[in-house]
Amino acid sequence: MSKVSYEPGSIGFGIDIGGSGIKGAPVDIRAGELAGKRFRVKTPAESTPEAVGECLAQVLEHFEVPQSTHVGITFPGIIQHGVVLSSANLDKAWIGTDLADLVRRTTGHTVTVVNDADAAGWAEVRFGAAQGQDGVVLVLTLGTGIGSALINDGRLVPNTELGHLEIDGHDAETRAASSVKENEGLSYKEWATDRLQRYFEVVEFLFSPDLFVVGGGVSKDYEKFVPLIKTRAPIVPAALRNQAGIIGAAALADREF
């Protein structure tokens, strides 16, 4: 690993906690890109706060991140003032845990904690597919579930959790997530015209966005399904892909200091 010079206001650090892996990297927060190769450790099978905290310390030590560096951390759940309020993919012991305080006690670092979809959405607005877009931007990540980030004139509205809207009597992501497409053997046309069309109709009616950004691994096949969805607002694919969480977390942390 090449030595990174952590300069305040220039190079920050982001960590993305996922159900299978915990990834971190230095981030050029002026350019919105990684400033070094990502380092990944496997998420522990028993993903308790203490076990994951040790992994976070390992990532920070790997990069020799100074305690003066702004560090952002994503978590796959609702986050309010650094406290985890939901945990779908990690141990339920996380619920009620102050993740920011855990990292401070474990590593000495002061960190900003943010929902993973919010971090990815913020990155797309600051540096990616929605850069320069005024008004309301709605970023939707289609994967195992549906993540969402709502940004209005450059201000993030956190923890929208729009994958859990009830639509036609169903939790939306149980019908429209890309994992459902795979599990039910749906074609892109069937998924787009039946499942996604209805979902986008509802969220557009509720939020009237000026732009939709679609992320998640399936966004690489954007041309196979997005043109089949009819909305007033344009829909574009995410630009930063699997780097968005790390970049967005670092950028949000820098904004808070």
Describe the fold and architecture:
The chain is an alpha/beta fold. Helix content is 32%, strand content 25%. It has 2 domains: 11-118 and 243-256, ATPase, nucleotide binding domain (Nucleotidyltransferase, domain 5), CATH 3.30.420; 132-238, Nucleotidyltransferase, domain 5 (2-Layer Sandwich), CATH 3.30.420.40. It has helices at 49-62, 99-107, 116-127, 173-176, 178-184, 188-207, 222-225, 244-256, and strands spanning 11-17, 21-28, 33-34, 39-42, 71-75, 79-80, 83-84, 111-115, 136-142, 146-152, 155-157, 166-167, 170-171, 211-215, 235-237. It starts with 10 loop residues before the first strand and ends with a helix.
Topology:
Layout: E1 11-17, E2 21-28, E3 33-34, E4 39-42, H1 49-62, E5 71-75, E6 79-80, E7 83-84, H2 99-107, E8 111-115, H3 116-127, E9 136-142, E10 146-152, E11 155-157, E12 166-167, E13 170-171, H4 173-176, H5 178-184, H6 188-207, E14 211-215, H7 222-225, E15 235-237, H8 244-256
Parallel strand pairs: 1-5, 5-8, 9-14, 14-15
Antiparallel strand pairs: 1-2, 2-3, 2-4, 6-7, 9-10, 10-11, 12-13
Helix pairs in contact: 1-2, 3-8
